[in-house]
Write a structure and sequence with these properties.
single chain; mainly beta; Immunoglobulin-like; 4-stranded antiparallel β-sheet; 7 strands; Hsp20 family protein; A-crystallin/Hsp20_dom
Length: 137
């Protein structure tokens, strides 16, 4: 079976970057931790919420790298000198990645009750009509 790509459709010109973004998203390797929600908060804004109980603000970093929102968490292991009879809560680290479309900007990030909220806004699209003059050859 032949793999269908956007280049297979002759009327879709210039979408190679979109195809690369889709492939990168599929390969991002996000595991199931931490769980997250994505909600649309208005016609042009979104909120990503990650459950990061046990992480302090200093344990988290948020960066935008090549149109990709990357949220990382790294807890320090403070178990030295402590004796656990049962240890079900481990110090973990994580990385969550979200590919951002052109025109999507990252706003503020707020930590609240063990939830990290990251707000995104998308620029309102403008309708552009362009007339192309035809020259005689």
């Amino acid at each position: 079976m032949t793999k269908m790509t956007l280049a297979s459709y002759p009327h879709m010109l210039g979408f190679e970057q979109l195809e690369r973004l889709l492939e990168r998203t599929a390969k991002s390797g996000n595991e199931g931790y931490p769980p997250f929600n994505i909600e649309q908060t208005s016609d042009y804004s979104y909120r990503i919420t990650l459950a990061v109980a046990g992480f302090a603000e200093d344990d988290l970093s948020i960066t935008v790298e090549d149109r990709q929102l990357v949220i990382r968490g790294r807890q320090t292991d403070d178990s030295e000198g402590r004796v656990f009879l049962h240890r079900g809560i481990a110090a973990r680290q994580f990385q969550r990645s979200f590919v951002l479309a052109d025109g999507v900007d990252v706003g503020e990030a707020v930590m609240e009750n063990g939830l990290l909220h990251v707000d995104l806004t998308r620029a309102k699209p403008q309708t552009v009509v362009q007339t192309i003059n035809i020259k005689k050859g």
